[in-house]
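Whiteboard transcription, Tuesday session. T.W. wrote the C-alpha cells on the left side:
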C-alpha cells in the first residue's frame, strides 16, 4: 500500500491541476484584481472539482509566466492565503506546486495543511529560465526544519521548459533519485510541453520506483486513462477538464463528472 491510499483513500488516483489567476508581480496580473476575487475564483474551482468527484487537486502559479527561479515573498503570502481560504471546509486532499521554487512550495504546504508538494527537487537543468539547480537535500532538510514529515515530495521528471544537463537518460535519473534523493513519488512529464510521456516510459519509471507512486503528469484523457492505470498509479490532469480545453478557462463540472465516471469504471476492473 502506498501513501496514495492513506491520503486519497484509493490506490489509483487522478489529481486536478488548478491554475491560480496571475498573481500580483507577474506580467499577466490584471491590475485592480483583489485578493478576495482571487480567493472566490479558487473556491469556485475547488467546489467544481468536488461536485465532479475529483480525487484531489494541486494548486499552482502556472499563469505567472515567464517563470523565475525563486519566487518573491508576495507569491508565498498570496498563495498561502488563497489556498487556505479556498480549501476552508473542504475535505479534498490537495498539494502545492510553485514554478520554480520548491522550498516556497513546502512552506505554503506547511501553512495550508497540504498533503504533498510537486517540484523538481533534484538535478541541473538548462532552458527558458537559464539554469535551474536543485539538490534534494535542501528540500528534505527544509521539510525537517518545518517539522512536516507528513508532506510528501512528488518529484517531476523532465520538468517543462528545461532539459537536464548531462547524459543521464530517464532510467538513470530514476535510479539515481531512488538511491540518493528520497522521493515519495514521481510525476513523469512529456519530453516537450504539450506532449505526453509514453506508456513505455511510465512502465519503466514505475518498475524502478520500488513501490512509491508514479503518475502521468500530462496527457491523460478519458480514452487512455485505463492504460494510464495499467502502467502507473494515476495522473495529473489540467486543461482537458476546462471549458474549451483552455488553461485560461475554469473547470467544467460536466467534463469533470464525465472523466471521473470513466475513471471509476477503470478502477473497478
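and on the right, the sequence the group agreed on:
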Amino acid at each position: 500500500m502506498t501513501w496514495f491510499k492513506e491520503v486519497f483513500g484509493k490506490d489509483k488516483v487522478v489529481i486536478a491541476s488548478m491554475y491560480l489567476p496571475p498573481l500580483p508581480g507577474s506580467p499577466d496580473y490584471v491590475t485592480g484584481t483583489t485578493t478576495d476575487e482571487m480567493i472566490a475564483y479558487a473556491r469556485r474551482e475547488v467546489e467544481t472539482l468536488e461536485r465532479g468527484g475529483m480525487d484531489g487537486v494541486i494548486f499552482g502559479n502556472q499563469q505567472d509566466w515567464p517563470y523565475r527561479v525563486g519566487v518573491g515573498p508576495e507569491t508565498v503570502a498570496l498563495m498561502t492565503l488563497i489556498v487556505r481560504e479556498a480549501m476552508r471546509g473542504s475535505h479534498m486532499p490537495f498539494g502545492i506546486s510553485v514554478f520554480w521554487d520548491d522550498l516556497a512550495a513546502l512552506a505554503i504546504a506547511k501553512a495550508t495543511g497540504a498533503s504533498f508538494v510537486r517540484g523538481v527537487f533534484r538535478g541541473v537543468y538548462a532552458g527558458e529560465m537559464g539554469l535551474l539547480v536543485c539538490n534534494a537535500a535542501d528540500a528534505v532538510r527544509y521539510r525537517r526544519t518545518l517539522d512536516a514529515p507528513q508532506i510528501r515530495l512528488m518529484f517531476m521528471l523532465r520538468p517543462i521548459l528545461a532539459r537536464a544537463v548531462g547524459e543521464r537518460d530517464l532510467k538513470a535519473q530514476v535510479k539515481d533519485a531512488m538511491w540518493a534523493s528520497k522521493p515519495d513519488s514521481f510525476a513523469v512529464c512529456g519530453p516537450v510541453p504539450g506532449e505526453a510521456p509514453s506508456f513505455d516510459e511510465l512502465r519503466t519509471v514505475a518498475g524502478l520506483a520500488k513501490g512509491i507512486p508514479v503518475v502521468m503528469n500530462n496527457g491523460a484523457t478519458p480514452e487512455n486513462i485505463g492504460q494510464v492505470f495499467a502502467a502507473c498509479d494515476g495522473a495529473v490532469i489540467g486543461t482537458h477538464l476546462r471549458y474549451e480545453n483552455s488553461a485560461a478557462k475554469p473547470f467544467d463540472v460536466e467534463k469533470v463528472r464525465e472523466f471521473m465516471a470513466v475513471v471509476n469504471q477503470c478502477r473497478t476492473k
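Someone added at the bottom: The chain has a mean pLDDT of 95.
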